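Field reference: sequence -> structure
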Amino acid sequence: MSQTVTEGARTGAVDAKSAPSSKRWWILAIVGIAQLMVVLDATIVNIALPSAQADLGFSDGNRQWIVTAYSLAFASLLLLGGRIADLFGRKPAFLIGVGGFAAASVLGGASSSFGMLVTARALQGVFGALLAPAALSLLNTTFTEAKDRAKAFSVFGAIAGAGGALGLLLGGVLTDTLDWRWTLYVNIVFAVIAFAGGWVLLTNHRDAANSKLDLPGTLLVSSGLFALVYGFSNAETHDWSSPATWGFLLAGAVLLTTFAWWQTRAKHPLLPMRVLLDRNRAASFIAVLITGAGMFGVFLFLTYYLQLNLGFSPTKTGLAFLPMMATLMIMAQVSTTILVPRFGPRIVIPAGFAIAAIAMAWLTGIGVGSSFSTSVLPQVIVIGAGIGIVMPPAMQLATNGIAAEDAGVASATVNTMQQVGGSIGTALLNTLAASAATSYLVGKDPTDKLTQAQATIESYTTAFWWSAGFFAAGAVIAFLLYRPGKLEQDPDAAQVVHM
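Structure field:
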């Protein structure tokens, strides 16, 4: 059956369409720059961690908190940030997010202690949780004409997919040529451009101004997501049997289940069920989650392999990801503007997952003496193509047909899925890789350098196989969940949610 969404959707669509066409692409540029700043910070600091550790003198055990502090704050507050944008306006949410993110970056770059750096990273996550959903919802409400929308989301999706690889490159260049602190200071450049452009170009819309903030729902989902991400983070440093791991994972599951129950009863729900019940939208949320988990195997373990086994410098490692970024960006355009409109998401997105799965399996052929040009380069090019086919159209479909008053929280859900997927991938693949290396060393001389090197190869290839498995599962799930046929939508009509 079908359900026509509220008159607010019609009004929101009209308001968005009334924006001068000359401003649309400038708004895309500003939103893209802001999104790039947020995505970069998921990886740009990682490559500078050894330098920061030597400078500030913190332990190996504490090093993970530089990454975890950001992901915890970001993931747990995304839905709140998205709802704030709906309630109080996307322009102020965007500008406060950009300004706060820049200020937190300056604090991190000026850090004189471990605690100061962790605090700054957590604050980046807080303001990023306000900025990211505001940016995506601005895109959703600015581009309502089908062809322009496809082009805009191909750009935005390419940034979301390739930003992590670009972060590795930029982090390596800045660390090698300047100082680790510049991996944080560089955000000022992005922030100044995004803030100035947002101030001039954006207009404020409060599409959910008549609603109220769902405080019980906010507490439940924020604490649930915090516990979930924290539990997966602990799995990297503790055993899966540790209460610090399973206890938090169990608490997260209970809290999120309670949140889902509460959303069916709340007068002003934080995440209205109508956002989740559309078949294509639900499939897209899951596609983003699986892509986030699978991409981790590419970025982290391939970075380890290039630096530790092939002897690449941080800058050269970043450059090695450029071919993947190029194919990702090309296929982002092709998939959103040509393939999905012609064949429909049920064909295209599973095909993209299948391509990525095959390429990840191909990448397991690496060895101690492998050549980058034959054992890595072709594979990462194909991986980039597969992810480019999946990520941008999934992000577009996750917010397609959404009522204007729900645009912020729907956009936040997309970002939440990507963050939680990354956390799941981090925990599972790290654990599986470590177990593979340990198993390989049983009965062998662990002090032999060749044996040690082969053990690391075993850990990498295990992670790649599991990433291939994630993508293969994504292909099956996407095929089963996406509605068959082409997308049919009249951009001039009130938007419709099929259930």
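Note: The chain has a mean pLDDT of 81.
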